[in-house]
Automatic annotation (TrEMBL):
<dbReference type="GO" id="GO:0032259">
    <property type="term" value="P:methylation"/>
</dbReference>
<dbReference type="InterPro" id="IPR006342">
    <property type="entry name" value="FkbM_mtfrase"/>
</dbReference>
<dbReference type="InterPro" id="IPR029063">
    <property type="entry name" value="SAM-dependent_MTases_sf"/>
</dbReference>
<protein>
    <submittedName>
        <fullName>Methyltransferase, FkbM family</fullName>
    </submittedName>
</protein>
<keyword id="KW-0808">Transferase</keyword>
<keyword id="KW-0489">Methyltransferase</keyword>
<dbReference type="GO" id="GO:0008168">
    <property type="term" value="F:methyltransferase activity"/>
</dbReference>
Length: 232
């Protein structure tokens, strides 16, 4: 099944990067935010503070490829592994990486979970950014279903040994992060979704990072984007 809309030609300039135009992605508010350089601003500012040249970085939730491209081009990470569950975003992410000479990023279309398991159905919608694992939300807008692989977090962390974690997984953080061994981390930038995970979920994320020896870093935290680092 073709899971993407054909891209439009041209690029939008943002933070020194070239973002490929796409009729189903770079529209309306997103286009305006890209041009104003306010798109993912809090996450980008935190990333620029904590990622260092030569870091091993694990990104959970690749989005449109914006943050991973920023890291690759402006922080020169030694290794950058990016997970994105939405298959409709993968072609756009690859185009963005290529357009900015960031082709060495390891992009994986899979969902990380505590235990792994069989593939899960992923529901595609006309609005690409609204595609999700939840088939009960706006079922009339679903245009198709594909299966997305599940991978257990443990083996991935053993393989990558990330020094920096970037995480924006739409509420999955409360279940996934406590299941991982994050002892290799020097820093983490996590977007919280308290509207979905509640106070207990937020506490679970903080406990997971504190358990790995990281402390909350307020200078690089902005609202729901929280940053942790080892030492002071």
């Amino acid at each position: 099944m073709n899971v993407e809309t054909p891209p439009a030609r041209g690029f939008i300039r943002s933070r020194g990067m070239r973002v490929p135009r796409h009729p189903g992605i770079t529209t309306g508010r997103i286009r305006a935010a890209l041009r104003a350089e306010t798109f993912e601003r809090k996450e980008c500012e935190a990333v620029m503070r904590v990622v260092q040249k030569g870091d091993r970085v694990l990104e959970l939730g690749g989005g449109i490829g914006y943050v991973s491209t920023l890291i690759a081009t402006q922080r020169q990470a030694r290794r950058l592994v990016c997970y994105e569950a939405n298959p409709a975003l993968i072609p756009h992410i690859r185009r963005m990486h290529a357009a900015n000479g960031a082709e060495r990023i390891e992009l994986r279309n899979a969902l990380l979970t505590p235990e792994g398991g069989a593939p899960l159905p992923f529901y595609l919608r006309k609005n690409i950014l609204s595609s999700s694992l939840d088939g009960t939300v706006d079922p009339g807008a679903i245009t198709g279903t594909v299966e997305v692989a599940r991978q257990a977090i443990g083996p991935v962390l053993e393989e990558v040994r990330p020094e920096v974690l970037i995480c924006d997984i739409e509420g999955g953080e409360a279940e996934l992060l406590p299941a991982g061994d994050w002892s290799s981390l020097r820093a983490a930038v996590i977007e919280l979704h308290p509207q979905w995970i509640g106070q207990s979920g937020v506490q679970a994320v903080f406990d997971a990072m504190h358990g790995a020896g990281l402390s909350y870093f307020p200078r690089a935290s902005h609202g729901k984007v929280v940053t942790f680092r080892r030492g002071w």
